[in-house]
Amino acid sequence: MLTTISWIALGIGIISSIIIMIDVVRHPQMMTIMNVVWPINGWFFGPFAIWSYFKWGRLKAKDYDGEDNRGRGAKVFMSTSHCSSGCTLGDAAGVPIVMLTGFTLLGTTLFAHYVVQFTLAYIFGILFQFYAIYPMNKKAGVMQNLKNAIKADTLSLIMFEIGMFGWMAIVHFGLFAQPPKPTEATYWFMMQIAMILGFLTSYPANWFLVKKGIKEAM
């Protein structure tokens, strides 16, 4: 039953990503990196990502000439989506690395996943933030914009990983007698849930960063 549910959830996520991707190609975002962010969100948020994209994301398309009526909550949601997508990409990329290398830490693959995935999630997350702010402030130069990206996204990245890693620990030590493997659909369904929880733990951090002026609301 869980395997069937997992395949259904993964299928919905992939279809949601494709739907968003098709529309993004037809209506590119003003901020180029968001053309990548929205389809990635589709993978773990599914239909909710489609709804949020057409409600808020389309307002930032290059060919949209209407009023931007988003409130702060929606803008912080987009900032969190931007952060989460970079983390998601890094976390997903880390899975096959651990699996193919057989890397373990302290006798378990879970801690190996923590190290590899956090490292890649941090790199991708900062790069996503960099490519959000650099086009708007090229005069500051690459290094200054990179420093600004690190300052703006480090806290939210850490909070995302806390939510995600917490769920991974529950899955690894509590939910299954034998944790699912990356070759199984159940593993990736658990990862989808982990991404959603990471988003939820990252949202308050993004709200704080935006409120303090450390990070720009998208």
From TrEMBL:
Residues covered by the DUF4396 domain: 75-215
Transcription regulation listed as a keyword: no
UniProtKB keywords: Membrane, Transmembrane, Transmembrane helix
Entry's transmembrane regions: 6-24, 36-54, 111-134, 155-175, 187-210
UniProt cross-references to InterPro entries, sorted A to Z: DUF4396 (IPR025509)
Signal peptide bounds: none
The protein's name in its UniProt record: DUF4396 domain-containing protein
Lineage: Bacteria, Bacillati, Bacillota, Bacilli, Bacillales
